[in-house]
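Objective 1.3, modelling of assemblies. Example input:
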Amino acid sequence: MKRRTFLAGSSVLTIATLALPQYPVRAGEPFTDAQSAALLRMVKDIFPHDALSDEPYQAVVGQLTGAAADPNMLAMLRDGLTALDAAAEGAWIDRGEADRITALKTVESTPFFITVRVTSLFGLYGNPAIWPAFGYEGASYEQGGYLFRGFDDLDWLPEPLS
Amino acid sequence: MTQFDKTDNSVVVVIGSGAGGATVAHELCEKGIKVVVLEAGPRFTIDDFHNNELAAYQQLTWADKRYATGDWPAATLAPEGPNWIVKAVGGSTVHWNGLSFRAQPHEFKPLTTYGEVEGASLADWPVTYDELDPYYSRAEDKMGVTGTHGIQRHPANNNYKVLYNGAQRIGYTQISNARQAINSEFRDGRGACIQLGFCNQGCKMGAKWSTLYSEIPKAEETGNLDLRSGCMVLRVEHDKAGNASGVVYVDAEGVEQRQSARVVCVAGNAIETPRLLLNSNSSLFPDGMANSSGEVGRNYVRHVGAIVFGEFDKPVNMHRGITVPGTVFDEAKFDPTRGFAGGYLIEAVSLGLTNLAVVGDAAGWGRDYTGFLEKYDHLAGVLLNGEDMPRSQNGVSLHDTERDQYGLPVPIIHVEEHDNDHAMSAHFKIQAEALLGAAGSTKNHHVVTAAATHNMGTCRMSAAADKGVVNSFGRTHDVKNLFISDGSQFTTATAENPTLTIVALAIRQADHIAAEMSAKNL
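Predicted structure (tokens):
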């Protein structure tokens, strides 16, 4: 997947411009443990869901780590984390949630933030493992659709007459 | 499979295999006319479809580069991908919702009905509702539209129950879950809907009408169709007299080919159709083929759109079943006391979690946004589909320098929204909030829709040759054997989803082409 398809400058992006980033999932290198931890914290702060374990968020960090095989991407992510620490006037990851969010808002229009956000968006919400926590049931064809599995089970409103 | 010789100049060449192209091709094949369909995308089968929003999006979407300019949301939210349409055999009938309302009689005379609207290029269609009426009926029968021809409606799904009750409680009376080109029972060789909830990802039951598994295989059975997928047309060529003589295309192996033609029908969707005409310029047609009026690529319309999601205390599970399961028609009327011309439909709509996260807020993050997403199974959605004002400056033009993978200039889609569109959108938001609130919503979430899927108007119909590109049969004023067979020929948008009208016009056009061929006028 070409990077320009999800990195249109500082513009916000929609499904029409986006394709799922298909990075190889890697762990560790080229990031330090501290950098990997900061990326995980950032992904969780961008899309916080208290009911989810770290696992789906770690998968996104793995995608970012895979993407960092590209030296330009690696430099952008490393520089972005450095800028985040600068915005937090210290180690960003050690700040409380409110302070972390304040720091993230100062970088939210940068390619760094947009890259992490978009990778998280598709990596997280495209991951079927998280869907049950939202009540989204996903693929239905193999189970015969919803015709006999609750397509009309809403019972707190009267039945339509037309 | 039938194959016609590339030098065979007795064939009708149809460019595009969506609602317009495949319908005109099938109708001609049934009349014994030889047809070559050139489709830019690949040919999938129902088994290839995914019950997965991301996988389907990647599989089906026309992703070639396009630029959006102007002040419409796409210019900032989707500047390099402003249109969500399909590049595959079947075109956008693979991902459409199936909603099949007829346009209303007065919507064929918008200039007469609404009067001059400053800053808009309104015009009456050169065809009337009464003339189209029998073709609408044939289209409804062909597509299997529920509530017509004795075809049963679907049972109400959860999302429709919310729409229905909310609408009724605020006084709306024209609420229906009919008019779906989705089989409620086995019909015409296609299975019945089992409420999969993936209408937009390619219907794995084949219950929703699509030319991919209806018009195209039927046309192939006649022995008169030569369908070539993976073939991108570069230009239409003409003879010394200015008649279309053939088309040049790149085949699936990347080899340039030429197919001779007796008649050429262009149906590439309202972006690619004018683009092809503009790219087919020559010394005889310096501004592009069939463009003596200067109207090719202008008057682009795509419907005023917006979505509102309501949050409810009790579960809705909107994802279970038909994606657009019902409609409120009360606001589709002409009523200038609302402060705008034209009307709109309110349609129930669902999104899967992935698409909701992506489009719910194009820049959304943080606890406010994730809190909304966590309400997923307690959400119900309503969609605005309204008539937008045509404007001469809105449309498709060619990039000066940038070329795509075929060497063709990249298209630029420019839209400057009319105040009428904004007034309509504002009215809808108030009505949608009231409707959802009446059904019990505790909070409403507004979504800006960036990508356009209903593309229309860029080769508009007109009676006068200097006011539009085609006549009432979709035949270009300038080139007698060149036809436009898709939504490009719409003079104006109307409030209704466009596919049924595209199919009705295509059936009528095929009758006209066959009659003109018999009379040796083509």
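Helices of chain A lie at 33-46, 54-67, 71-87, 97-106, 111-125.
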